[in-house]
Amino acid sequence: MNRAKTLLLLVALAFAAQLDSSVAQEVRQERLSFKPGASSAVVDGSIKGYETVDYVLGAKAGQTMAVTLKTASTSTYFNVLPPGSEAALFTGSTSGNEWKGALPADGDYRVRVYMMRSAARRNEQAKYTLKVSIAGSSVGQAPSGDAKVAGTPYHATGTVPCSVGPDPKGSAQCSFGVIRGNTGNADVYLAPAGYDVTLQKDKVETVLSFRGNAVTSRDPTQKVTATKAGDEWSVGVNDFQFYTIPDAVIVGG
């Protein structure tokens, strides 16, 4: 192939890539609403090629969202995007078509249904049924006067001792934000060492739910062990992440 043909081919490929990218960015938005008294909504839809749909719904920090996508297409997925961000809380193409998780902030969330680029290029069509539900925070009502930290959904923020793997327990500090409810009930949002839950919401890797003497994770795939000595909880997640949570984080004071 001579130089002129090579240059022509490269120009054509660059143009095709640019066109492919611009088409792939087209997103249609639809507001998703629940019927009175309902906590979930089901929508039947379809997309073809590069069509992408954002289903938008409002929710509050501390609530739990559950999403299920049913489709015969093996190339159609959904992502969950938090308010004002393109950093997905959940990415279906790597994690499947079911998700349940705690929401980190108040605002409009987007459930984005899309087709993988390889299928979109073939202009394939996919029909689907999407179910989205929102459950209220189970922490209950926060004590009167427990104000939130400005600009955050949290009643308090800071750091707690943490470690990973074989590192000495408490050898690092992990950023936390806590949403408190009835006395003894709280959800503690934790980021890895080096990240800040108030600045990097997408870095929250664990949400520990404290309900009296029980400690669980909002992620059902995470195994939690917890013991309490004095006014401190020692919590392990998947026998790999370890945190020390003072009682003051949970109940305030």
Structure commentary:
By secondary structure, the protein is mainly beta. The chain has two domains: 27-135, Jelly Rolls, CATH 2.60.120; 156-251. The chain is built from four helices and 17 strands. The protein has helices spanning 3-24, 92-95, 117-121, 247-251, and strands spanning 28-31, 40-48, 53-59, 64-71, 76-81, 90-91, 98-102, 107-115, 125-135, 156-164, 172-180, 185-190, 206-211, 214-217, 224-229, 232-237, 241-246. The longest helix has 22 residues, at 3-24.
Jot down its keywords.
253 residues; mainly beta; Jelly Rolls; 2 domains; eight-stranded antiparallel β-sheet; five-stranded mixed β-sheet; 17 strands; 14% helix; globular
Distance between the termini: 76 Å
The biggest beta sheet is recorded as: 8 strands, antiparallel
So, CATH architecture of the largest domain? Sandwich
Helix % is: 10-25%
Briefly, what CATH class of the largest domain? Mainly Beta
What is the ordering of alpha helices and beta strands? HEEEEEEHEEHEEEEEEEEEH
Number of helices: 4
Q: Report the mean per-residue pLDDT as an integer.
A: 85
Tell me how many strands there are: 17
Radius of gyration: 22 Å
